[in-house]
Design goal:
Number of strands: 0
Shape: elongated
Order of helices and strands: HHHHH
Mean pLDDT: 93
Structural class: mainly alpha
Oligomer: single chain
Length: about 90
């Protein structure tokens, strides 16, 4: 089996990834498994970093409320900045 790209990984469910790894195991494609797991770790690291930077849910809801009242984009800008500063890995 061929190694997966980040784009392919993003489009797969957990079950599909598991099936892919099981097939690689049966075919002794350990390098592919290692590569996929490294990519999954890289994705997870970015997701955990973002999670730590996102404001608490209550704060986000408050931002959204005041954005609605004041016709501003504070919440959207905050989330976009976090995502821009911490992009997901790409191929």
């Amino acid at each position: 089996m061929a190694n997966l790209t980040y784009t392919q990984i993003y489009s797969m469910t957990e079950s599909e990834l598991s099936d892919f790894n099981n097939t690689n195991m049966q075919e002794d494609n350990f390098d592919d498994i290692k590569s996929i797991n490294e990519k999954l770790r890289a994705i997870s690291t970015v997701q955990e970093t973002r999670k730590a930077l996102y404001p608490k849910l209550e704060e986000q809801l408050d931002m959204q409320y005041w954005d609605s009242v004041n016709s501003t984009t504070t919440w959207k800008d905050k989330i976009a900045q976090i995502k821009t500063d911490n992009p997901l890995p790409q191929d």
